[in-house]
Amino acid sequence: MEAISVYGYNYRMLEHPPPSNTKSPPSSPKDHTSENTPPPAPPPPSRLLTLPTELRSQILRHLLPRSLSAPSPTDPPIWLRGTTAILATCRLLYAEGLPLLYSHNVFALDVVWDCCTFAYRYFSRSATTHPLIAPRTMAFPDDLAPRNVALMRRLQVRVHHVDSYLGMMKYGYGGSGLAEGLADQVRWLGRILGRLERVVELRVVWRDDGGRQGVAEGVLGPLKTLANVERCVVVEQWTGKGVEE
After folding, report:
1. Is the pTM value of this prediction over 0.90?
2. Is the pLDDT of residue 12 over 60?
3. Which runs of E-coded beta strand occur in 17-175?
4. Among 39, 63, 172, 217, which one is most buried in terms of CB atoms within 10 A?
5. How far apart are CA 89 and CA 78, in angstroms?
């Protein structure tokens, strides 16, 4: 049985074409003006792209985030806020700006018993009481793109050796197990840094809370012997004395 609508017609009626006497609306006369209109002129090139490369690099350095040296050689650098949005505007600015961001700034890495992190803190010009923003951390190198890690040329590596009490509380290890686990992390980091094309400067900060002498030499060896490092400086925080290698 065919379904009938409550309005008195069946649903097949909706599929019928309109009656032949139905007139379609008159078509508007063809507009021939568009055929004779010339295409719009291309936009003028950006004045930034027409500048010399040296001048454009100075502008990019001013816009991108940049690091400043901390007052103490054992503290990580302080970053000034900037913008990386300009790198997404065109391929030329991306190719020129990415090395400026990663090759000319100092990146601080913290090595502890169980991980290695990239730590950074920003300086806020608007804050009056506490201008330094709390440090933020990212897993290194997992949270960074490999192409960006390959561009790093200046690094500060802070190696943290804790005492047995804190080691048992945080990691469940104490005594020589703390130094052995830390040495494993340093060797792993040394393999990553060894794959870089070159490292202009490597500052290694040994932070020892346990007070055991002679531990630093056995742990820091893989970093002090990297062949691609042009300048290596080792600083022990308890003495503050830097020894250039």
Report:
1. no
2. no
3. 66-68, 78-80, 106-111, 116-123, 136-139, 154-161
4. 63
5. 27
